[in-house]
Amino acid sequence: MLLKVASASTISFFKIIMTNITSMSGFLLMGFSDVRELQILHALLFLVVYLLTLTSNLIIIIITTVDQNLQAPMYYFLKHLSLLDLSFISVTVPQSIDNSLMNNGYISYGQCVLQVFFFTALAWAELAILTVMSYDRYAAICFPLHYEVIMDPSKCQWAVRAVWLSGSISGILYTSATFSITFCKAKIVHQFFCDIPQLLKLSCSNDYLGVIGVVAFVAVLAFSCFISIVLSYIHIFSTVLRMPSAEGRSKAFSTSLPHLFVVSFYLSMGIFAFLKPTSDSPSLFDLLISIFYTVIPPSLNPIIYGLRNEAMKEACRKLLLGGQLTKKKSYLFCC
């Protein structure tokens, strides 16, 4: 009899908790663990990665702005990629660190809306800038004599404006479609940020079809970008293989292959995360996959694009060792 009473009271207790979670205005991010020690460890690891990513990307932005030797279109696009990277990682990681340190996974409705908007906007803008950078490498390697005409300053600036504008449009479409659905289930998100697939699971009807339409539309555009990148690199590799100089081939491959790796890794992780079925219980695998496309790319991009470039390394040494960076009128001016 006592067991039945205890069982009934336990069930009623959980019903009250689920009712409160369902009726609350915000969402509950489950994060990585309920163990306090692991939460602190997660916060410290994320903090270290965040500070390193922030520092490396800020260094790239500074030196590509003030150093006259780094004013070619490639560095101009790299500067905006670094700006996108530090913004992209700032959307999710600081909130996750705060939730872990405070032992509180609550995120308000407004914060979740902003997180979805900036996350999707910056994710698309990053893919767009990588596409532009592939075209820049294509023009530089395949048409070196006409490169300055093809990639003149005005065209580069318009390309960057198009990148940021397309990102904003993508963010508006995703956000308006996602938050037009009715959340009638317990507002528990099994992620460390407001993940769209997890948010769709909270709908009790088919009103999430609008989001699927947006995803399909953006997926077609993303596939078009990927095809454009692949075609660019087919032309690049065919041109490089015909180069008589082994040093020239090595230099061209060293700048092209890392870029192709970044694009492939970024796209494959994002597509896998959106297309795989979402689980009803917390999964470490899901969390690790989300790290691969939210944290790893912004952390690796400065290393792949910056530290492997001799001109960038020399400018970094001047900056870090207190050397004088020459400040002359830049090729693209600072936008």
UniProtKB/TrEMBL annotation:
Odorant receptor. The keyword Cytoplasm does not apply. The chain crosses the membrane at residues 12-32, 44-63, 106-125, 208-236, 257-275, 287-307. Gene3D superfamilies: Rhodopsin 7-helix transmembrane proteins (1.20.1070.10). It comes from Chrysochloris asiatica (Cape golden mole). Keywords: Cell membrane, G-protein coupled receptor, Membrane, Olfaction, Receptor, Sensory transduction, Transducer, Transmembrane, Transmembrane helix. The keyword Membrane applies. GO terms for cellular component: plasma membrane. Its main location: membrane. CDD domains: 7tmA_OR14-like (cd15227). InterPro entries: GPCR_Rhodpsn, GPCR_Rhodpsn_7TM, Olfact_rcpt, Olfactory_GPCR. It is found in: Cell membrane. One of its GO terms (molecular function) is G protein-coupled receptor activity. It is a multi-pass membrane protein. Residues 56-305 form the G-protein coupled receptors family 1 profile domain. Coiled coil: none annotated. Belongs to the G-protein coupled receptor 1 family. This is Olfactory receptor. It comes from the Eukaryota.
